[in-house]
TrEMBL record:
NCBIfam families: enolase-ppase. It comes from the Eukaryota. Keywords: Amino-acid biosynthesis, Hydrolase, Methionine biosynthesis. GO terms for biological process: L-methionine salvage from methylthioadenosine. InterPro entries: Enolase-ppase_E1, HAD-like_sf, HAD-SF_hydro_IA, HAD_sf. Signal peptide: none annotated. It holds the Pfam family Hydrolase. One of its GO terms (molecular function) is acireductone synthase activity. This is Enolase-phosphatase E1 (inferred by orthology to a human protein). The lineage of its organism: Eukaryota, Metazoa, Ecdysozoa, Nematoda, Chromadorea.
Length: 239
């Protein structure tokens, strides 16, 4: 048995198509307007500087990235490139979180959550299981998906949230840091994901692991099917 669940979002509690076709598309289509409005805002200065520094770093490994940013248009081109490549870059995720916050608050977006997720999490919560989220999206973006979901505000179900500030999701050390942060042994934590490399990293850190196979998820290797239990719903977690 497990004392806590650490769950991924995309492809696990939420459809990949929602993230890619709704969230990513919104960010790509609206980044020019958003940055034009906030570029010279003092409250945005920290994010702005991170994006400029990120452009310098990424320009060293990607010839299509504008390394020496001179204006908002340059940054927008870089951001659309990163979104297209689904880059797991913390400053990018921070910017997307700010953009999505505005969209959610204006009623332009509702977070998708699979039907089986809320009742399963509620049952687990009643049994005393701690519930945590770990996603490459920023903590702000995580709370928005669950706070403005089609199923209502689900944020009350979760005990804490983790993003790439604690480490990348394919690094074993990230999972060790999370277990230390929540004061539980890795073997007492069940990690749920749709990504094989993440499952391997969590397993190597000592976690229990189950892989979700949702509609639209990438096919798993034969090795993944042998090594991990593959499920298609959260219902099995409450049995």
């Amino acid at each position: 048995m497990f004392k806590a669940i650490l769950t991924d979002i995309e492809g696990t509690t939420t459809s990949i198509s929602f993230v890619k076709d709704v969230l990513f598309t919104y960010a790509s289509n609206n980044v020019d307007n958003f940055l034009q409005r906030f570029w010279n805002n003092k409250s945005f200065e920290n994010v702005k500087n991170k994006l400029i520094k990120l452009s310098e770093d990424e320009g060293n490994v990607d010839d299509l990235i504008i390394k020496d940013v001179e204006n908002v248009d340059d940054i927008c081109k870089n951001i659309r490139r990163w979104i297209e490549l689904d880059k797991k870059l913390t400053p990018l995720k921070e910017l997307q979180g700010l953009m999505w916050e505005e969209a959610y608050n204006n009623g332009l977006i509702k977070g998708h959550v699979y039907d089986d997720v809320p009742p399963a999490l509620e049952n687990l919560k009643k049994k005393g299981i701690k519930l945590y989220v770990y996603s490459s999206g920023s903590v702000k973006a995580q709370k928005l998906i669950y706070g403005f979901s089609e199923k209502g505000d689900l944020t009350k179900l979760f005990d804490d949230y983790f993003d790439t500030n604690i480490g990348h999701k394919i690094d074993v050390s990230s999972y060790k840091r999370i277990s230390e942060t929540i004061s539980l042994k890795p073997s007492d934590i069940l990690f749920l994901t749709d990504i094989e490399k993440e499952a391997i990293a969590a397993h190597e850190a000592g976690y229990q692991v189950k892989i979700l196979q949702r509609p639209g998820n990438s096919p798993l290797s034969p090795e993944a099917h042998k090594k991990f239990e593959v499920i298609n719903s959260f219902d099995i977690l409450t049995c």
